[in-house]
Amino acid sequence: MARPPIDPRLWRHARSARRYLALSVALSVAITGALVVTALELASVLAGVITEPGRRGIGAWTTELAVLAVAIAVRAAATWWQARLAHRAGADVVAELETAALAAAAQLPPRELDTRRTELAVVVGSGLAGLRGYLAGYLPALLLAAIVPPTVMAVIAAHDPISGLITVLTVPLIPIFMILIGLLTKGRAAATLTAATRLSDQLLDLFAGMPTLRALGREMPAAAEDSGRTMAHRVRELGDALRQRTMRALRLAFLSSMVLEMLATLCVALVAVSIGMRLVFGHMSLYAGLVALILAPEVYWPLRTVGERFHAAQDGMAAADKAFAVLEPEASAVEDDSAIEARPDAEEMGGDRVEEAAVQAVSHENPLAPGRFASASDGAIIRLRGLNIAARDGFAPAALTAQLRPGEVTVLAGPNGSGKSTTLQAILGLLTPDRGSVTIDGVDVGALDPQRWWSRVAWLPQRPVLVPGTLRDNLELLGASTDEPRDLESACTATGFDAVLNELPHRWDTVVGQGGLGLSLGQRQRLALARVLAAPRPVLLLDEPTAHLDSASEATVLAALTARARAGATVVVVGHRRSVLAIADHIVRVHATATEAVSA
Length: 600
What we know:
600 residues; ABC-type transporter activity; Thiol reductant ABC exporter subunit CydD
């Protein structure tokens, strides 16, 4: 579907753009009025000086010159103010859309977010910055193009009908050429954005896998003939492709500007030749000829400017289209844009956001929210009835029916790809079942207040989420605190993280980077487990909690989970090791085609 000149989605999602649009229209009207007054006064003075020898002194034209000076000043001030507003509005609109896109991205289902993560990173990180060109250049030119040509042509026609007719016949040529150029460049901006996204995705994958590449000795080509064994050639190809696309876009922009400039010059020349011939033969007054001649370039100037600034706006609008695809998914039309609230989502990013949102929810509890819990020992009864969630091939899980009770350790077991991790996400409310339901104490999980529900859940995803900061910052994500040494000490002892702390001189004040950079894989797992066990939460959801642990540490962790269950918590564990299955009070077999629950 073709995008309208002024995209209404932009005004729906960026409130600051609405005020700017209203002011920009008013300033465009002021610029048009000043332009017409300038032409009329200038033509009056020039014609009078030439045709009236007695009025060739400055004192004879004081009033006209004063009006001319005021009109020029008004036009300059209005143009400056419009540019200033445009730059401010551009920054505000970009910030609003980036915030809204991030908030809407957090609402995406985990699988969709995972596939669009790099695209969203490019759009939010740099793509939307191109909207500044749209608001600061293209939009003001578009408004002037809608106001100036009709007004100026009407003034020209009132003074010289023939020149007015020439402008009416020639003005459509510029939009026609603009359409032809637009058809030629259609999709170029979107292709450039796609190339940038692909390059960013490849670079992110390369950097993430650099330790493995270095371990295999493939980070740099040993010789020219070995370059095909590395990622260097692929990154170079993608970079060259992006550079070539960018240069082609710039070449088209310059060529189209030249074509529009030449066309506008020829159109003005037709008006000038017509005026000159009629002045020579005395078929028109000098004043009328000067008015038409001065105003003729102003008829084509806004249209020419629109064509010149069209390309500068396309990169930003292509990125905005990607953002709007997230803000306005086809499944649900946006009816109220007054506020877009972020709902944490996804597996890896989602773990981080869910944990942070749950921390905030502790201090913002809703007394009217359904499914309230009294304390950390009062677990929830979780019922899965015919749970089906669509996967690539069929459903995973498929027809899952089970009851996860407080005071018991329930283990979800099954082959890879059967939907065990997906089941945990459905319990959290991150995924909406395609069929069946998930209820918490008899209330559908979709009807629960998400923040209230997450404030009662301690979730350990397959890849534990550790945020940049101190170990204490990461520990307190789920509500645990170093001010409660008894519970914390027992959790650290159970997971073996106490030994890790003893090796760190700053203990809980030790700083780690993104994803726990600075800790080994096993240490990260122990910290995440200690965070879950020390959290005062009545529902524990753990996805392969004993991965990367030795057998002794695994035994202490499983004993701690059993103790939490015996204290009244609802403990749900995804696992397949015999040691994990051995502590289960209830084993739920998860399959992509059938599910069978058996008691341990």
